[in-house]
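Example 349.
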Amino acid sequence: MKEENFRAVWWEGGKIALLDQNQLPQRETPSFVDSVEDLADAIMTMKVRGAPAIGIAAAYGVALAAWGKEDPQASALRACDLLARTRPTAVNLFWSLQRMRDVIARSGREDMGPEELKKALLEEAEMIAQEQDQADRLIGKHGASLLPAGCRALTHCNAGGLATLSFGTALGVIKTAYQEGKLSKVWVDETRPLLQGSRLTAWELEKCGIPYTVICDNMAGFAMSRGEVDAVVVGADRIARNGDTANKIGTYSLAVLARHHDIPLYVAAPLSTLDLSIADGGDIVIEERSPGEVGEYRGIKTVPEGAQVWNPAFDITPASLITAIVTEAGVAYPPFAEELGKWAGKGDE
Ligand code: MRU
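Predicted structure in complex with MRU:
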């Protein structure tokens, strides 16, 4: 496999650089952000997206808000509040902001000067990014061990390096299985309405030289019925205590189809995606995005004037439809609560 040679987000000369995901696959354009307001906009407009990548970008955003300021503590706290209002479903955002708030709180206790605080915030953001990369590689190894030889895996949305840092969770499992010679092809769900599958996942697979076929979301059932899918591997935006999982809209439909065809469905996610404060998926806030994302295609209307449109960005897959949850700490099988509870807060091991 060719090594992936991109990062979704990085710090460069006092600015945040993002590989603008709205420009892919046509243009691999870095976009430089020099204010926390612009970063909030980049997250909301999905220049940077995917649960862990949003968390990493937000951590850099807090460091950016403090950079060059006389009162870095106040600016950093304001940035935490602003960034927490960007996207509600992926818990990694809130997890990451909490880590940055902890650094700010420590600076008060340890009487850090402004320069020390700025440095500590940037170091924490870099650490969150680095830990995600390490988690991705472990998730890849654990997940690949579940796949059969010659596996034809189906994935939805983009849970690749673009959604984390550079390797990915669900796509990390697929990349690792390919490296291990176990994977024969990937079915890539197009992922309406914003096409994260056909634009982003296909771009990553192309870069890695992994064979793939793009399908519209409504073709997955037919591929399964023909015996052409051996496993479904998806990412997650938030996993409740009982294993119910919020992920890109359409994941639930895939899970129902997979169960009907007796195909395993694996959820791959870092421990930072667990939200054990929530008992089940009923308590997960589902982001509803602009109707224009469904009713228009790149500025051209695809519905009659005045059509009602509903655009939930995520759905909940009940734990009962999930074969296993793969994290950097290992593989959890149902019932998930005990294993997830044991891992929570422990980091990778
Ligand atoms: O709306 P998006 O593109 O941010 O949604 C992304 C997903 O649903 C991913 O599957 C999830 O964040 C996992 S990314 C490793």
